[in-house]
Specification:
- The structure holds 2 protein chains of 2 kinds.
- Chain A is of the alpha+beta class.
- Chain A has 2 domains: about 80 residues, Ubiquitin-like (UB roll) (Roll); about 70 residues, [2Fe-2S]-binding domain (DNA polymerase, domain 1).
- Chain A is about 35% helix and about 15% strand.
- In chain A, a hairpin with a 2-residue loop joins strand 3 and strand 4.
- Chain A is globular.
- Chain A starts with a strand and ends with a helix.
- By secondary structure, chain B is α+β, with helices and mostly antiparallel strands.
- Among the domains of chain B are: about 160 residues, 2-Layer Sandwich (Aldehyde Oxidoreductase, domain 4); about 190 residues, Aldehyde Oxidoreductase, domain 4 (2-Layer Sandwich), CATH 3.30.365.10.
- Helices cover about 30% and strands about 20% of the residues of chain B.
- Chain B has 20 helices and 24 strands.
- In chain B, the strands form 7 sheets. A 7-stranded mixed sheet of chain B has the order 8-9-6-15-12-13-14, sandwiched between helices. In chain B, strands 11-16-17-18 form a 4-stranded mixed sheet, sandwiched between helices. Chain B has a 4-stranded mixed sheet with strand order 19-20-21-24.
- The longest helix of chain B has 28 residues.
- Chain B is globular, with a radius of gyration of 27 Å.
- The two termini of chain B are about 35 Å apart.
- Classes of the chains: A alpha+beta, B alpha+beta.
- The interface between A and B is large, with 57 and 59 residues.
C-alpha cells in the first residue's frame, strides 16, 4: 500500500506517494531525480549514500522513506547555498581530492555533517566519521588534505570573527 | 613465453604481448533466433571461464580491428577535432574516464598542440557514434598511445591554421606563430583564429584527410599546458553531485530491472513459474532460456518481483565438484596446461647454494564503488546504451553479437563512471539491460547489486608461482627459474641481470571467471620475485638493497630503488634490528615505468597483527604530463595494493562466494592508510608512460619483506599473514 510522505528536502517542501518501505536513497534517485547521492552497497557499509536527516548523518540506502515523514532532509544537491559552495566542497575542489568521484558526495556530506554538529571539530573528529566511508580509488591522502584545509580555514575564520 | 639470456622479454606492449589488456570472457549472451542465452557462462558446468589462453580477443580478431585492444584510431582529422564557426573546439577520443585522469590529460594534449588554454577545449569521450575507436582503456595505454594520437591531430589542425594564415597574407609559415588560438599578423591589425578556419571550405576538405603521421609535436621543453597541473575538467560537477554517472542516467518512461542469478556457479535453471511475478503491478518478466529478468516502475518493485521469481525457480547444480578457495593452489597446479615445465638448470643446482619457494596469490575483486550499471533504449530497431565500461567499442560489438544487429545500429555512450581498475572490460550488464528494454518496449535502467558485483563480475586471477635459483661462489645469482601458473605473463621476466634464466607463464583451468586488474599479473610476479630476492640475500648475508643493486644494470630501475632507499634512510635503518618493527623494500618495472617502495611495519606478536606505519615510494614514468593527477594515481595504487597485501581474498565454496559484501570483504579505509610519501622522478627526456597500474606492484612484496626481516619467517602467500 502506498503512503503519502511529506518532508522538507533541501529547504523545500516535498511530498511523495509511494511504498513506505522503499529506501530513501531509491526515492531520491528514481522519483525525485536527485542522483548526487549514490548507491554503493545497500547495507550502510560504504556511506556513498550519506544524507542528513534533521542534521544527522544517515545512510539513505537503509533508511525507509517512511522514516523521513515530517523530517528535514539535506542531500549533496542542497549543500551549496545561493550558488556558493560549502567550505567542504571548496576544499575538495581546491585539493582535486577525488579520482572517480563516486564516493565524493558522501565524503563531503560526512565532513559537512560533523562540522555542523560540532563547529569546533578538527581532523580527528571528521576522520572518525569518514572511517565509515569507502573510497575504492584510494584517494584518502588527498581527502585528508582537503579535510585539513577546511579545518584550518574554518579556524582562521573563527579567529577573525 | 620463454626467455633466454641475453634477450629480455619486451617490457613495453607490442604486438606479441597484449595479454595484460585481454578482456575477460563475456557472458556469451545470444538473444538471436537460436535462443541460446548463456552459451558460455552456464553451458560449461561449474567451470565458468573458458580459459585464460594468453591471447586477447584483440589478437584473435586482428590487432587493428574495430573494438580491438588498440582500436582503429581516427580515420581523418575531422574524426578527431571539430572546429566551430563560433570558435568552439571539440576534441573526440575513444578513451573513458573512470577516475584515472584521462579527461584532464587528453584535454591537455589537445590544448598543448592547438596552443589554446585547456579550458577552451571541449572533450567528448567514448560515445561510439561520435568518437574514433582508440581501443580499450586498459594496459596504461592512454598516456603512451592516445595522448600522442590526440596531439598529432591537434598539431595537424594548428598547421592548417598556419597554412591558412600564410595563404591569406602571403607569408612563410616559419614566420607565424599560434598563440591563444590565434595568429596575429606582425602589425597587430590582422588576425586569424580557429573560428576563421572553421569557415573555410578548403580547410573542411583537408579535415577529411588522414592525419599526417609525420606531424611534428611540441618538444617537452616548450610545453605550456602539458607538464602543468590540470584539474579534472568536470570537477565542479563531482563536488556538487551533478555529474551523471552511468547509474544516474534517466530516460523518459524508464523502467528499473533486475536479473535472476543462479544460486551457485554453473547451476542450471530447470523450471520457473513466472505467473506470481507477472501478476504484480506494472511488472514485466523477460525470459530467454536461462536468462530471466524482470522490470518494474522502481527498483524496490523490481526486487519484489525478483523475489517472487526466485521462489518459483528450480535449479540443478552443476555436476562434478569444483574446488573451494582453500584447495585452489593445489587445483591450479594439477590443472596447469601441459604440466609444469621442469627447471632446465637442475644440473647446476647440485653442489651450489640454492633456494626453492612456491608463492600463492588469491583471487581478489576490483569492487569499484559504482557497480556495473546500464541504461538501454531501443528506437526503431536501433539500440542506445549508457554504461560504465573500459571498452566502449568492445561493448558495442558484444551488443551487436547478442542481438544480431549490425554494429552501426548500436550506440554505446560511456559517461565518466565510478571506477574500473581493469574490472570493467566487458558489457554483460549492458546486454542484460538491452534484453529487458526489448521486453518492456521502454528504456530500462539496470544496476547490479554489490553482491552481484562480488559474485558475477570477473576476478583478478589467482596465482601459484614456483621460483628456484642457484648462487655462485661470489653470492650472485647463477640460475633463475620462475613459473607463473594461471595469473599471466606480465613482469614474469626478472629485471635483474642473471646469466641463465627461464621465466614462463603456464595457463591453468581457472575455477572462477577471471580477467584484467590494475597491473594484472605483474603484482603477483613481483611479489614472488621480490620476496624471493630477500630470502636469497639473507642466504648469503647480504643487505636486500645491496643484493639488488649488485644485480641491476637497468639504470632507471636502479634510480628509483636508490631514491626510495635514500628518502627512507634505508642504510641507517637497516643497521638496527627489531622484532617489533620491520622494514622492507622492493622494486619493479612494468609497462614502461619504474617503481620502488620502502615500508615500515609494526608487528604485534601477542595478537598476531601487523600494521603498516609508513610507505615511501619512488616512481618514474618518463615525462610527467599532469603533476596534479599523477600523485593521485600513485597514492591510489599504493592504497589498493595495501588492501590486497593485508586483507583482500575472495573466499568461495560450493560455487558460492562467501565474502560478497563490503562487510565481509574488507577494502582499505581511512585508518588503514599509513604515512605515504611519494617521490616522483620527472624525466622530460623520456616518453611518458601510463601511471595507473605500475605503482601498485611494489607494495605487497615490500610489506612481506618487512615482516620477514622482523620475524625471521618468510612470507609466501597473500594476503600477508603474520602469526
Amino acid at each position: 500500500m502506498d503512503a503519502t510522505i511529506g518532508f522538507t528536502l533541501n529547504g523545500k517542501p516535498q511530498t511523495v506517494s509511494t511504498d513506505p518501505d522503499r529506501p530513501l536513497l531509491e526515492v531520491l534517485r528514481e522519483d525525485l531525480h536527485l542522483t548526487g547521492t549514490k548507491f554503493g552497497c545497500g547495507e550502510g557499509a560504504c556511506r556513498a549514500c550519506t544524507v542528513m536527516i534533521n542534521g544527522q548523518l544517515t545512510p539513505s540506502c537503509i533508511t525507509p522513506i517512511s522514516a523521513v515523514d515530517g523530517q528535514t532532509v539535506l542531500t549533496i544537491e542542497g549543500l551549496a547555498r545561493d550558488g556558493k559552495l560549502h567550505p567542504v566542497q571548496e576544499a575538495f575542489l581546491a585539493e582535486g581530492a577525488f579520482q572517480c568521484g563516486y564516493c565524493t558526495a558522501g565524503m563531503i556530506m560526512g565532513a559537512a555533517g560533523v562540522m555542523k554538529e560540532n563547529p569546533g571539530a578538527g581532523e580527528v573528529e571528521i576522520l572518525e566519521e569518514l572511517q565509515r566511508h569507502i573510497c575504492r580509488c584510494g584517494s584518502y591522502v588527498k581527502y585528508r588534505a582537503a579535510i585539513r584545509r577546511v579545518v584550518g580555514l574554518t579556524q582562521i575564520e573563527k579567529r577573525r570573527a | 613465453m620463454k626467455t633466454e639470456p641475453p634477450d629480455r622479454a619486451p617490457l613495453l606492449p607490442d604486438d606479441d604481448m597484449l595479454d595484460f589488456g585481454a578482456p575477460a570472457d563475456s557472458f556469451g549472451y545470444d538473444f538471436g533466433l537460436t535462443r541460446r542465452s548463456f552459451t558460455k557462462l552456464l553451458g560449461g558446468g561449474l567451470i565458468l571461464a573458458v580459459g585464460f589462453n594468453g591471447k586477447s580477443q584483440a589478437q584473435e580478431s586482428g590487432q587493428r580491428s574495430r573494438g580491438g585492444f588498440l582500436g582503429s584510431g581516427a580515420r581523418n582529422l575531422a574524426a578527431r577535432i571539430h572546429l566551430g564557426a563560433d570558435g568552439s573546439i571539440t576534441v573526440m577520443a575513444g578513451k573513458v574516464e573512470g577516475g584515472q585522469g584521462a579527461r584532464a590529460e587528453l584535454t591537455q594534449a589537445a590544448a598543448e598542440e592547438l596552443r589554446v588554454p585547456a579550458s577552451q577545449v571541449q572533450l567528448i569521450l567514448a560515445d561510439t557514434s561520435l568518437v574514433p575507436d582508440d581501443g580499450m582503456t586498459a594496459g596504461s595505454g592512454t598516456t603512451p598511445r592516445t595522448v600522442p594520437a590526440v596531439r598529432q591531430g591537434a598539431a595537424a589542425a594548428r598547421n592548417l591554421l598556419i597554412g591558412y594564415a600564410c595563404s591569406q597574407w602571403e607569408m612563410e609559415p616559419a614566420t607565424l606563430e599560434v598563440r591563444d588560438g590565434k595568429i596575429v599578423h606582425g602589425t597587430g591589425r590582422r588576425a586569424v583564429s580557429y573560428a576563421d578556419l572553421a569557415k573555410s571550405v578548403d580547410v573542411a576538405r583537408q579535415f577529411g584527410q588522414a592525419i599526417p603521421a609525420n606531424v611534428e609535436l611540441t618538444p617537452v621543453k616548450e610545453w605550456r599546458v602539458m607538464g602543468t597541473p590540470v584539474l579534472r575538467p568536470n570537477a565542479l560537477q563531482i563536488v556538487t553531485g551533478t555529474h551523471k554517472y552511468p547509474s544516474d542516467v534517466a530516460r523518459p518512461g524508464m523502467f528499473y530491472g533486475k536479473v535472476l542469478r543462479p544460486p551457485a556457479y554453473g547451476a542450471k535453471l530447470v523450471s520457473i513459474d513466472p505467473v506470481p511475478a507477472k501478476a504484480m503491478k506494472d511488472v514485466i518478466v523477460a525470459q530467454d532460456d536461462q536468462f530471466v529478468g524482470v522490470v518494474a516502475r522502481n527498483s524496490s518493485a523490481a526486487l519484489d518481483a525478483l523475489a517472487a521469481l526466485a521462489k518459483a525457480a528450480k535449479w540443478e547444480n552443476a555436476p562434478g565438484s569444483a574446488p573451494s578457495s582453500k584447495d585452489l593452489a593445489a587445483y591450479l597446479r594439477q590443472n596447469a596446461e601441459g604440466g609444469i615445465p621442469a627447471n632446465p638448470f637442475a644440473a647446476e643446482l647440485a653442489g651450489a647454494k640454492s633456494l626453492r619457494r612456491t608463492y600463492y596469490v588469491p583471487y581478489i575483486q576490483h569492487a569499484p564503488l559504482e557497480p556495473r550499471a546500464a541504461v538501454a533504449e531501443w528506437s526503431e530497431g536501433k539500440l542506445t546504451i549508457w554504461t560504465g565500461s573500459q571498452n566502449p567499442f568492445g561493448v558495442r560489438n558484444e551488443l551487436a553479437r547478442a542481438f544480431h544487429l549490425p554494429e552501426d545500429s548500436v550506440r554505446v555512450v560511456i559517461p565518466d563512471f565510478g571506477g574500473g581498475f581493469g574490472g570493467k572490460h566487458t558489457g554483460e550488464c549492458a546486454v542484460e539491460a538491452a534484453r529487458l528494454a526489448k521486453a518492456v518496449g521502454k528504456p530500462v535502467s539496470l544496476r547490479w547489486s554489490r553482491e552481484e558485483e562480488f559474485t558475477w563480475a570477473y576476478f583478478r586471477p589467482a596465482a601459484v608461482i614456483d621460483v628456484e635459483a642457484s648462487l655462485d661462489a661470489q653470492g650472485k645469482i647463477a640460475t633463475w627459474y620462475f613459473i607463473n601458473i594461471n595469473s599471466g605473463p606480465n613482469a614474469v621476466d626478472t629485471p635483474y641481470s642473471v646469466p641463465k634464466k627461464d621465466c614462463q607463464f603456464v595457463p591453468s583451468k581457472p575455477p572462477l571467471r577471471h580477467g584484467s586488474y590494475r597491473g594484472l599479473a605483474a603484482t603477483a610476479n613481483n611479489f614472488a620475485r621480490e620476496a624471493f630476492m630477500d630470502e636469497l640475500a639473507a642466504s648469503v648475508g647480504a643487505d636486500p638493497l645491496d643484493f639488488r643493486i649488485a644485480h641491476l644494470d637497468d639504470a632507471r630501475l636502479r634510480a628509483v630503488l636508490e631514491r626510495a632507499a635514500k628518502e627512507f634512510h634505508w642504510s641507517d635503518r637497516a643497521k638496527q634490528k627489531s622484532a617489533n618493527i620491520g622494514i622492507g623494500l622492493s622494486c619493479g618495472v612494468e609497462k614502461g615505468s619504474y617503481v620502488a617502495a620502502c615500508v615500515e611495519v609494526a608487528l604485534d606478536h601477542a595478537r598476531g597483527k601487523l600494521k603498516v606505519n609508513r610507505i615511501c615510494e619512488a616512481y618514474e614514468c618518463g615525462a610527467i604530463v599532469n603533476p596534479a593527477n599523477l600523485p593521485s594515481q600513485v597514492q591510489g595504487a599504493v592504497v589498493m595494493g595495501l588492501g590486497a597485501a593485508l586483507r583482500e581474498e575472495v573466499q568461495f565454496e560450493n560455487g558460492k562466494i562467501l565474502n560478497d559484501s563490503f562487510g565481509k570483504y574488507l577494502v582499505p579505509r581511512f585508518d588503514d592508510v599509513p604515512e605515504i610519501e611519494i617521490h616522483l622522478i620527472d624525466r622530460p627526456d623520456l616518453p611518458s608512460a601510463g601511471a595507473g597500474e605500475t605503482p601498485i606492484i611494489a607494495i605487497a612484496p615490500a610489506i612481506a619483506n618487512a615482516v620477514y626481516r622482523a620475524s625471521g619467517k618468510s612470507v609466501q602467500s597473500l594476503p600477508v599473514r603474520f602469526a
